[in-house]
Amino acid sequence: xxxxxxxxxxxxxxxxxxxxxxxxxxxxxxxxxxxxxxxxxxxxxxxxxxxxxxxxxxxxxxxxxxxxxxxxxxxxxxxxxxxxxxxxxxxxxxxxxxxxxxxxxxxxxxxxxxxxxxxxxxxxxxxxxxxxxxxxxxxxxxxxxxxxxxxxxxxxxxxxxxxxxxxxxxxxxxxxxxxxxxxxxxxxxxxxxxxxxxxxxxxxxxxxxxxxxxxxxxxxxxxxxxxxxxxxxxxxxxxxxxxxxxxxxxxxxxxxxxxxxxxxxxxxxxxxxxxxxxxxxxxxxxxxxxxxxxxxxxxxxxxxxxxxxxxxxxxxxxxxxxxxxxxxxxxxxxxxxxxxxxxxxxxxxxxxxxxxxxxxxxxxxxxxxxxxxxxxxxxxxxxxxxxxxxxxxxxxxxxxxxxxxxxxxxxxxxxxxxxxxxxxxxxxx
Amino acid sequence: xxxxxxxxxxxxxxxxxxxxxxxxxxxxxxxxxxxxxxxxxxxxxxxxxxxxxxxxxxxxxxxxxxxxxxxxxxxxxxxxxxxxxxxxxxxxxxxxxxxxxxxxxxxxxxxxxxxxxxxxxxxxxxxxxxxxxxxxxxxxxxxxxxxxxxxxxxxxxxxxxxxxxxxxxxxxxxxxxxxxxxxxxxxxxxxxxxxxxxxxxxxxxxxxxxxxxxxxxxxxxxxxxxxxxxxxxxxxxxxxxxxxxxxxxxxxxxxxxxxxxxxxxxxxxxxxxxxxxxxxxxxxxxxxxxxxxxxxxxxxxxxxxxxxxxxxxxxxxxxxxxxxxxxxxxxxxxxxxxxxxxxxxxxxxxxxxxxxxxxxxxxxxxxxxxxxxxxxxx
Lengths: 429, 378
Description:
heterodimer, A: mainly alpha, two-stranded antiparallel ribbon, 67% helix, B: alpha+beta, 14 helices, 16% strand
């Protein structure tokens, strides 16, 4: 049996299929701009509305074609085990309402993931996703620049960092660290998706997008974001055949961006320098505070036994831990594996690890299958790096409950299944 | 089926249309858009309609938090309304004091506790040095007692030292004040002077009652879940907010807990017997955040027969998300929570262990405090 999606049959199916793709494009394009896409009067973001519609229309189409509501994504064992671990944590939850709500949220994410993975299992869709996401991230960076320098665009977050006098700002999302993560996803596409740089026009646009994203990332003042961004750039250099040339271009680009920003607003460069070094100068204890807390949180996670304290209870489970450094960020568990360990126990942690290995295996198999198609390989590498960036950031940030990850994971698995759906001999040369 | 390029273009257009709509709505907040409304405000001040002017200025400041001419007029309004500390703060912002944050002035009307300094640079023409000095002299002449407050004095010096005055250099080299520099006692004193007249550090119930009478409030019973036969002390709760910050507090016969914060709601868990604040926290309830969930976690930590006091300025109510609003209404059965555009301060006391009613108070005017005096009449 082939993995390829069957072509739609009726006119209704075609219309529904077109809407699904429209919804997916709108979803992807709105992710880095969410706070600016609130539907007037409704209080919802377009992302939320389009996610719900995409799932609904997808199910209607599949059922009308007399097929199961969702197609297999080929990481079912990981999803099933993780879902089982989440459900197993429910009976022992220390806050059953919160756990039940979180279970429902994960269920919705799973539906969204399955719908997106199927919609994105098409070459014509896949070629557009990186460009759309990068464009939206670049717009978000430009909007952040405007908000910072001139104040026309309303900022979703514009604040002074606690115990510091450094201003941080983001336009698309209310959490600058979260916004930084989306900038990193866009950077992954920019660095590894070859099609974005093909031809002078596209290369020019991509260079402009890179500049806007770099400034947007700087304005978030997210040190973890900066560190991962540098790691991505180094990875690009290492993965390149002409390393010295790529390194030279990278250094020139970094110097150019820095000089340009210096010319426009030198204080921003100074803020970045101060932010990057202040943890060494004793002014900012947030990193030390998090590290201090990890030990206490691990002890607490062990107390949760095999099934943990229940989903979405990490905050409650560790709230009694004292923070001798007086930093409030540490009250939240800033580490996703640790957070899931506390909430779902070691069974949940193991299931989470298995889910990641399923995703990695799927991308790896697709990458091997796409041996003769360099563009497809580059796209799969970009998705792998994107997911790796999330993995790295999730070690110091608490990002779990966010529908955007379900969307992007769906796109990645859609790309993998797209490659796997073709026999090796049928690949383009 | 339409081509993918067309579908992608349609999706991009949809998102951009919403983004443009959002920015267009925000364009109302640009300085140029404020000028006609500023003229209307000037008319109100010329007619000496201070109540209306105060209400209107607060509404304008929600939309134009950094517009300096608006702060200059609001300073005049606060001067006439008898709030000298607020007048100084508005004048400091209007005069372009670029270290407003150092001075402990954070705009409650701004979307977040942002760097007002950078935005102030391009937000309207500041008043002249002569106008500032004249205003400072008038303030000192009319409100000599209020000017004994060290923070007020510091602000006054800075305002007097516009331009290249050597005094300015002196204050630049002085150790910076932290953002929430007013310590609680000082904040309480300021609030006392604003809301309750000359209030002693340890107010007696008579003083509180007298001041609440001044506000037009009647003492009310403690929420019915209180403490059975135990004799609870009288507890006063107040919320007082302005465009430049909020002061909230819980006072009993022998104890007081006041906070000064630029934004957000203040919640305090209060021991109904002693009137002591067991713990307290500030929640901003900004849209698209998990603040309502964190608030639920926070209140669920308390299981005893304690009271929960909640205080919010008009700006804090205006900026809260619908989710948070719904949560408070449903969880505590609130009836009098002001509408987002009412800009009235609000305070309530409810029983954490599931009492049958909450006691609420709403301020009579935009710049007046909301206050409750709870008594156990058993």
